[in-house]
Amino acid sequence: MALLEEELRSILNSLSYLSAQGDLPVQTFATLVKNARTDVLVEHLHQRWLSDSNFGNAAARIVAYIHRDNPNDMKLPSKVLSLSLDDYKKRYEMRRSDRKMFRNYCRSLVELMPIFFDIDKYMGTSLVRPLFDCMFILTESNPDDGDLLCVAQILIRSGQLLYELDPHVCDKIIMKCRLSLCSNDIRLSDLTRFSLLNAADLWTYRWNLQAMPYCLLQFYQAQYEAYHLNEYEDKRWLPQGMYQSSTTTLAPSSVSSFSKLTNDDFESIV
């Protein structure tokens, strides 16, 4: 029996609430929603990840779980990918109308991309350029504090993945973060400045915490503790080992299981 839309909305409301608290029993929720009509489920997931900065991770995990349960059915991942690419075509309009929604879209891309790589290399590859382009928009197009914090958190959490996909483009984004950190034109919060610095240091050591001097690890652990970060919304963007957290995510920090993109797969962005 197909899940009624009202029931689906109620289930996703509960998941949104729990995602804000850091408790994500996604497997349970995925089991409940998998009987919904695919087009209805995708549209509701889409609306949620654009409006809720926490929901991109939950949506990606739901897609992954349902696909693993029925790997021959590509309707759900295909429709999710299609909506993500449609939003990419409208990225400038979205950015002008609602910066927060645009940042949530960027966060959803970095959550969905490794899931799609796991499903199909070419599906994952199709989100690489949109993510990089959107990160350039966040750093180049009259950025504000929220934009730069979003970029820094993406680099901190998933920078190793991005670097393995295209080190040249990742280097350019890091340099734009450095310029923003040194600029007096943008009023940055202490957390944003600190996060930009953290991203730059992680880039220096290629996101290898074992290569990073212990004094730096101590510095960042102490500073993050001092900021009293929200357990789910902020701490989950940190690389594993940078801060002890009870929150876990599905997104990997590396794409070592994926083949590195060739020039035929992904043309240069710049």
Automatic annotation (TrEMBL):
GO terms for molecular function: translation activator activity. SUPFAM superfamilies: ARM repeat (SSF48371). GO terms for cellular component: cytosol. GO terms for biological process: regulation of translational initiation. This is (pine wood nematode) hypothetical protein.
